[in-house]
Amino acid sequence: MRCMHEDCRQWFPCPIFIGNDVSFDISKIENNATDCPYCGRETGCNKENFRVLFEDGGFTGNKA
User: Where are the domains of the chain?
Assistant: First the structure.
């Protein structure tokens, strides 16, 4: 996932476990937050700032 703060925008592993592409597609990953390990501030942990790679393709959110 990517930190949503404009002055950081660093990529780091998401603390939410995603099993496979099907579970990712049907999940509603929104209204979650985590602390960015780079800037230390709370940032959104939502599909829109995810970057995911599966065996048959990938997904990048609209703010990633």
Answer: 1-64
